[in-house]
Amino acid sequence: MAIGSTIRGASKRQVLADHVYDDLMLALVDGRLEADSPLNIDALAREMEISPTPIREALARLESTGLVVRAALRGYRVAPLFTIDELNELMEARELLEPENTFRACGLASARLLDELERSITDLREAPVDRGGESIKPYWEADERFHRLIAEGAGNRFLLAAYTALGGHVQRFRLFGGLGVSDASHAIAEHGLILAAMRAGNAELARKTMHDHICGVRLRSIADSQQQ
Known about the structure:
Layout (H helix, E strand, L loop, with lengths): L2 H27 L8 E2 L1 H8 L3 H14 L2 E4 L3 E4 L5 H25 L2 H16 L10 H17 L3 H10 L1 H9 L7 H16 L3 H25 L1
Antiparallel strand pairs: 1-3, 2-3
Protein backbone atom coordinates (compact mmCIF):
# COMPACT_ATOMS: atom_id res chain seq x y z
CA MET A 1 0.00 0.00 0.00
CA ALA A 2 1.29 3.47 -0.87
CA ILE A 3 2.23 5.80 1.97
CA GLY A 4 -0.26 8.41 0.80
CA SER A 5 -3.19 6.01 0.97
CA THR A 6 -2.09 4.86 4.42
CA ILE A 7 -2.08 8.45 5.65
CA ARG A 8 -5.48 9.13 4.10
CA GLY A 9 -6.87 6.00 5.75
CA ALA A 10 -5.47 7.01 9.12
CA SER A 11 -6.90 10.50 8.66
CA LYS A 12 -10.36 9.13 7.93
CA ARG A 13 -10.22 6.91 11.00
CA GLN A 14 -9.20 9.89 13.14
CA VAL A 15 -12.05 12.01 11.79
CA LEU A 16 -14.50 9.21 12.59
CA ALA A 17 -13.05 8.78 16.08
CA ASP A 18 -13.35 12.53 16.66
CA HIS A 19 -17.01 12.47 15.61
CA VAL A 20 -17.71 9.55 17.93
CA TYR A 21 -15.92 11.34 20.76
CA ASP A 22 -18.04 14.47 20.20
CA ASP A 23 -21.28 12.48 20.03
CA LEU A 24 -20.52 10.57 23.23
CA MET A 25 -19.41 13.75 24.97
CA LEU A 26 -22.71 15.44 24.16
CA ALA A 27 -24.67 12.37 25.30
CA LEU A 28 -22.80 12.53 28.62
CA VAL A 29 -23.46 16.25 29.01
CA ASP A 30 -27.17 16.19 28.23
CA GLY A 31 -27.86 13.09 30.31
CA ARG A 32 -28.73 10.58 27.58
CA LEU A 33 -25.91 8.44 28.99
CA GLU A 34 -26.89 8.28 32.63
CA ALA A 35 -24.46 8.41 35.52
CA ASP A 36 -23.03 5.01 36.56
CA SER A 37 -24.62 3.20 33.60
CA PRO A 38 -22.56 0.57 31.70
CA LEU A 39 -21.09 1.39 28.29
CA ASN A 40 -21.10 -1.64 26.03
CA ILE A 41 -18.75 -1.08 23.10
CA ASP A 42 -20.46 -3.55 20.78
CA ALA A 43 -23.91 -2.13 21.55
CA LEU A 44 -22.72 1.42 20.95
CA ALA A 45 -21.11 0.35 17.68
CA ARG A 46 -24.38 -1.22 16.49
CA GLU A 47 -26.37 1.85 17.51
CA MET A 48 -23.99 4.21 15.70
CA GLU A 49 -23.58 1.78 12.77
CA ILE A 50 -19.78 1.79 12.89
CA SER A 51 -17.05 -0.63 13.92
CA PRO A 52 -16.09 -0.96 17.60
CA THR A 53 -12.62 0.55 17.04
CA PRO A 54 -13.58 4.27 17.04
CA ILE A 55 -15.90 3.62 20.01
CA ARG A 56 -12.99 2.09 21.92
CA GLU A 57 -10.71 5.00 21.01
CA ALA A 58 -13.30 7.59 22.03
CA LEU A 59 -13.95 5.90 25.37
CA ALA A 60 -10.21 5.82 26.10
CA ARG A 61 -10.06 9.57 25.48
CA LEU A 62 -13.14 10.17 27.63
CA GLU A 63 -11.58 8.15 30.44
CA SER A 64 -8.80 10.74 30.65
CA THR A 65 -11.42 13.46 31.31
CA GLY A 66 -12.97 11.51 34.19
CA LEU A 67 -16.32 11.28 32.39
CA VAL A 68 -16.10 7.51 32.04
CA VAL A 69 -14.34 4.96 34.21
CA ARG A 70 -12.96 1.53 33.39
CA ALA A 71 -12.78 -1.42 35.73
CA ALA A 72 -10.82 -4.61 35.09
CA LEU A 73 -13.03 -7.35 33.63
CA ARG A 74 -16.07 -5.06 33.77
CA GLY A 75 -15.40 -2.59 30.98
CA TYR A 76 -16.46 1.05 30.83
CA ARG A 77 -19.14 2.81 32.83
CA VAL A 78 -20.36 6.41 32.92
CA ALA A 79 -18.72 8.12 35.88
CA PRO A 80 -20.94 9.17 38.79
CA LEU A 81 -21.99 12.82 38.91
CA PHE A 82 -19.80 15.10 40.96
CA THR A 83 -20.78 15.75 44.54
CA ILE A 84 -20.94 19.34 45.77
CA ASP A 85 -17.52 18.91 47.40
CA GLU A 86 -16.02 17.61 44.15
CA LEU A 87 -17.59 20.44 42.17
CA ASN A 88 -16.16 22.92 44.65
CA GLU A 89 -12.68 21.38 44.32
CA LEU A 90 -12.92 21.49 40.53
CA MET A 91 -13.83 25.17 40.54
CA GLU A 92 -11.02 25.93 42.98
CA ALA A 93 -8.59 24.33 40.53
CA ARG A 94 -10.01 26.43 37.70
CA GLU A 95 -9.62 29.55 39.84
CA LEU A 96 -5.91 28.82 40.10
CA LEU A 97 -5.31 27.82 36.49
CA GLU A 98 -7.49 29.95 34.23
CA PRO A 99 -6.54 33.42 35.48
CA GLU A 100 -2.89 32.55 34.80
CA ASN A 101 -3.81 31.34 31.32
CA THR A 102 -5.64 34.61 30.71
CA PHE A 103 -2.72 36.71 31.94
CA ARG A 104 -0.35 34.91 29.57
CA ALA A 105 -2.77 34.90 26.64
CA CYS A 106 -3.28 38.65 27.01
CA GLY A 107 0.43 39.26 26.55
CA LEU A 108 0.52 37.11 23.42
CA ALA A 109 -2.92 37.93 21.99
CA SER A 110 -3.18 38.38 18.24
CA ALA A 111 -5.99 40.19 16.46
CA ARG A 112 -7.20 36.79 15.27
CA LEU A 113 -7.47 35.42 18.81
CA LEU A 114 -9.39 38.50 19.98
CA ASP A 115 -11.78 38.21 17.04
CA GLU A 116 -12.35 34.52 17.74
CA LEU A 117 -13.11 35.31 21.37
CA GLU A 118 -15.57 37.96 20.22
CA ARG A 119 -17.22 35.42 17.92
CA SER A 120 -17.58 32.93 20.77
CA ILE A 121 -19.38 35.57 22.86
CA THR A 122 -21.74 36.29 19.96
CA ASP A 123 -22.45 32.57 19.61
CA LEU A 124 -23.04 32.34 23.36
CA ARG A 125 -25.53 35.20 23.19
CA GLU A 126 -27.44 33.56 20.33
CA ALA A 127 -27.49 30.02 21.76
CA PRO A 128 -30.66 28.55 23.33
CA VAL A 129 -30.55 28.34 27.11
CA ASP A 130 -34.01 27.08 28.09
CA ARG A 131 -34.76 23.60 29.30
CA GLY A 132 -37.17 23.00 26.42
CA GLY A 133 -36.65 20.76 23.43
CA GLU A 134 -33.52 22.50 22.15
CA SER A 135 -30.13 21.13 23.11
CA ILE A 136 -27.77 23.30 25.13
CA LYS A 137 -24.97 22.02 22.90
CA PRO A 138 -24.46 25.38 21.08
CA TYR A 139 -24.24 27.22 24.40
CA TRP A 140 -21.90 24.69 25.96
CA GLU A 141 -19.67 24.63 22.88
CA ALA A 142 -19.44 28.44 22.68
CA ASP A 143 -18.70 28.70 26.40
CA GLU A 144 -16.02 26.01 26.29
CA ARG A 145 -14.52 27.51 23.12
CA PHE A 146 -13.97 30.87 24.84
CA HIS A 147 -12.01 29.28 27.67
CA ARG A 148 -10.12 26.87 25.42
CA LEU A 149 -9.04 29.67 23.07
CA ILE A 150 -7.53 31.45 26.05
CA ALA A 151 -5.85 28.27 27.30
CA GLU A 152 -4.38 27.68 23.85
CA GLY A 153 -3.37 31.34 23.59
CA ALA A 154 -1.36 31.13 26.81
CA GLY A 155 1.44 29.51 24.83
CA ASN A 156 2.26 26.76 27.34
CA ARG A 157 1.52 23.16 26.39
CA PHE A 158 1.54 21.98 30.00
CA LEU A 159 -0.94 24.61 31.14
CA LEU A 160 -3.11 23.62 28.18
CA ALA A 161 -2.85 19.94 29.16
CA ALA A 162 -3.81 20.82 32.73
CA TYR A 163 -6.83 22.79 31.49
CA THR A 164 -7.91 19.89 29.28
CA ALA A 165 -7.48 17.33 32.06
CA LEU A 166 -9.79 19.27 34.37
CA GLY A 167 -12.77 18.79 32.07
CA GLY A 168 -14.30 21.69 33.95
CA HIS A 169 -17.00 22.68 31.50
CA VAL A 170 -18.17 19.17 30.86
CA GLN A 171 -18.45 18.23 34.52
CA ARG A 172 -20.42 21.38 35.30
CA PHE A 173 -22.81 21.12 32.35
CA ARG A 174 -23.27 17.44 33.08
CA LEU A 175 -24.91 18.39 36.37
CA PHE A 176 -27.34 20.81 34.77
CA GLY A 177 -27.59 19.70 31.13
CA GLY A 178 -31.25 18.74 31.44
CA LEU A 179 -32.22 21.91 33.28
CA GLY A 180 -31.16 24.58 30.83
CA VAL A 181 -28.69 27.37 31.59
CA SER A 182 -29.58 29.65 34.47
CA ASP A 183 -26.62 32.03 34.45
CA ALA A 184 -26.25 32.90 30.76
CA SER A 185 -26.60 36.67 31.24
CA HIS A 186 -23.90 36.65 33.93
CA ALA A 187 -21.52 34.50 31.87
CA ILE A 188 -21.93 36.59 28.72
CA ALA A 189 -21.28 39.82 30.61
CA GLU A 190 -18.25 38.34 32.36
CA HIS A 191 -16.80 37.02 29.11
CA GLY A 192 -17.21 40.51 27.69
CA LEU A 193 -15.22 42.03 30.56
CA ILE A 194 -12.42 39.52 30.06
CA LEU A 195 -12.26 40.28 26.35
CA ALA A 196 -12.31 44.04 26.97
CA ALA A 197 -9.32 43.73 29.30
CA MET A 198 -7.47 41.64 26.72
CA ARG A 199 -8.24 44.11 23.92
CA ALA A 200 -6.84 46.87 26.14
CA GLY A 201 -3.69 44.82 26.69
CA ASN A 202 -4.18 44.95 30.46
CA ALA A 203 -2.93 41.53 31.54
CA GLU A 204 -3.48 42.10 35.26
CA LEU A 205 -7.07 43.20 34.68
CA ALA A 206 -7.59 40.24 32.37
CA ARG A 207 -6.35 37.94 35.12
CA LYS A 208 -8.70 39.55 37.65
CA THR A 209 -11.77 39.46 35.42
CA MET A 210 -11.20 35.77 34.69
CA HIS A 211 -10.77 35.06 38.40
CA ASP A 212 -14.00 36.93 39.16
CA HIS A 213 -15.78 34.99 36.41
CA ILE A 214 -14.69 31.57 37.67
CA CYS A 215 -15.62 32.57 41.24
CA GLY A 216 -19.04 33.61 39.98
CA VAL A 217 -19.51 30.35 38.09
CA ARG A 218 -18.57 28.40 41.19
CA LEU A 219 -21.05 30.22 43.43
CA ARG A 220 -23.84 29.97 40.87
CA SER A 221 -23.17 26.27 40.22
CA ILE A 222 -23.30 25.43 43.91
CA ALA A 223 -26.49 27.46 44.34
CA ASP A 224 -28.09 25.67 41.37
CA SER A 225 -27.10 22.25 42.69
CA GLN A 226 -28.70 22.99 46.04
CA GLN A 227 -31.99 23.89 44.37
CA GLN A 228 -32.32 20.60 42.47
